[in-house]
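Hi there. Long-time user, first ticket. I'm pasting a complex I've been working with (about 444 residues overall). I'd like to know whether the download I got is complete or cut off, because the file seemed smaller than I expected. Thanks.
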Amino acid sequence: MWGFYFDQLMNSMPMFYKGMGMTVAVSALSLVGGTVIGTIAGILRSNRGTFLSRILSLYVDFMRGTPFLVQLFIIFFILPEFGLQMEAFTAAVVSLTIYAGSYICEIVSAAIQAVPPGQEEACRSLGHTRSQAMRLVILPQALRMALPALVGQYVLLIKDSSIVSVIGLTDITRAGWLTVQRVPEGIMVFGLVGLLYFAVCYPLIQLSNILEKKFSTGDMKL
Amino acid sequence: MLEYFNFRIIWEYMPLFMDGLYQTVWISLVGIIGSLIVGMIACSCRISGIRILSAPAVVFIEVIRSTPLLAQLYFLYFGLPSLGIQVSELTTGIVALSVNSGAYVAEILRAGIKGIPGGQVEAAMGQGFNVYQRFFYILLPQALANTLPTMLGQAIVLVKDSAVLSLISVMELTRAGQILNSERFMPSEAFLTVAALYLLVYYVLKGLSKFYQMRMMRFRSA
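Hi, the file is complete. Here it is re-exported in full:
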């Protein structure tokens, strides 16, 4: 019985490989996009009290306060109403990027604020401009501190990318969903799905733990 | 923008949205209680120092944290029937949420327990408390109190995660939006209203977390 289903599962392995490729592609693209948006937004937001930082905190609150599934629906279903038709892949990458950007914005702005203000004051008194102080002194330290949290966020991003399967993108989760329609062995099929995600996420979680240990001892005590 | 919205439709579907909101809040409450139970058991096993208890707990926590909730939900949804267990979608969803969030709660509790001074345990041992009493009377209450803000953050995550239950057709807030969208083809009205209602819950929980943090700070400084 199980042997029969196992053969069928083996037959759908090519779909799982393709799904893995899709999950990695979507996550990698939005990871890069989210980091760029999040870092820029984080720098702007670390300047508390300005108009821009208030707007950014609305953005962060909206993204943190609503489920990613709803955000995906908003982008996939509402934007076409305004004439902005998007393919499922583009919609997935765009929504994941904006979503990840908000969390990375929080991480980066918290890290920037954790750099002692004396650092900036010292820079300024040496005649550096504000942007030089940010670029040469504060950001390198802040990003180092933020690194463990960033890697942790990337794990969340990869896991959340499973939700884009609902708009028809054949990622790992959808490969499982399609397979389970033909092979009615949910435990086996989604066991495999879990295994594939585990293979991607577990090493990253360990990396985040290692980075945390490395940066929380010794030289990062400012 | 405002004249673009069809408020009449939103009003007409208000009972549906309110029912969805009620279901989401109810599912989340049950899920939070479930995840606290799962988390306490997993955490107590993990820190017990008894290998046959701690090893499975570590595997459980790492596997859950390395795989997406959606894959876990499908694992139960398609897997339970093939084991001959027939339960409703709602039960499946709540179990998936509790188990998923439980792994995170276990880690939060463990961090909270780590922060408790060792003298507490020594004093309890000196009083003749056994392992069980030390965990449930000394460590757990303090860890729960210390980690309450983090727990509220986890509650926010759980409320948002409950949106994926709509994908196995559990009637909750996101599902209410999907119903309006499929009946009237009005994605903006449907999903922006849903987003607003999630934000409502988010701001309540965020406010609670801030309030408690402030109280805790005053308590500590006094």
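A couple of notes from our side: Chain A touches chain B at residues 61-62, 64-71, 73-74, 77-78, 81, 155, 159-163, 165-166, 172-173, 176-177, 180, 184-187, 189-191, 193-194, 197-198, 201-202, 205 (CB under 8 Å). The two ends of chain A are 62 Å apart (CA to CA).
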